[in-house]
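WARN no homologs supplied; continuing
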Amino acid sequence: MAGQGGPAYYRQYSTDSGYFLQDDAETDPKTFDYTALNFGLKAFPDALEEVKTTWQIFEERVCIMNDFSDPNVQYKVLFLGRHGQGVHNVVEAQYGTPAWDCEWSLLETDGTLSWADAHLTTLGIAQAKKAHDFWAMQFADQKMPAPQSYYTSPLDRCLRTAQVTFSDLELPTEQPFVPIVKELLRETNGLHTCDRRSSRDYIHTHYPSYIIEPSLTENDELWSADVREPNSALDSRLTMLLDDIFENDKNTWMSFTSHSGAIAGLLRVVGHRPFPLVTGSVIPILVKAELVEGIRPGRKAEEGKPAPKCSEE
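OK structure emitted
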């Protein structure tokens, strides 16, 4: 971005580490349960937690950071939630990842299950309900701040996960659950039919209370049947997503409902350590965005790759 006739600026993103267990190398993503450990928020040893909860103390600290930081610096707390189990997750587990990548992911059905724009399974809905109940408990017991903004991928499994998770919660009147559907928040794109989204009309019909961004086309014009989106392209579009949100949304507390690949990309973009999420899980991160004069360094471009060849074994 640049002012008229002025120097160019870009946002440089980083993770303000140390507040969450997920920031630490010692925390194992494979065994970590966010519902058992207060979303991973660490205690403040110098604070009187019998007076205020850990989340109330953290909320105050984030507010102070935003109030007293340089005008070119913003902090936001992002809750990155992976959708609940989808039909495609079941099929991949059934056939194995190699067979999924080279054959089944390119199809829409095996004659029993269908996974184009994959929907949630019964377990996936249960995982979203578990998240709903945990958010409710956190609001009641921890006085945890509710998200002020909600964003979701346009793929059905995320639209439904967000609906089950956040509908019917006791939210502040001025912060209702009205999610914005963002094309750039979708999963790694291409090849896999589970990642080809439904039409804009479908989203509006099935989720009429959701706000669909104006740029989202009627049909999916981004999905490719020929190549899979490389990480360099994924990270670039997720940077564009953050640029858009940090520029246009002044709220601090945000929920993103997305996918394993997209969340991994967001963590890369903000310099967080890798932290793979199981379906239905959530990771909170404190993101610092600083306006820096100059042009954002480019990423080494990678070419999208076609589906791998299936083994003849």
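The two ends are 53 Å apart (CA to CA).
OK
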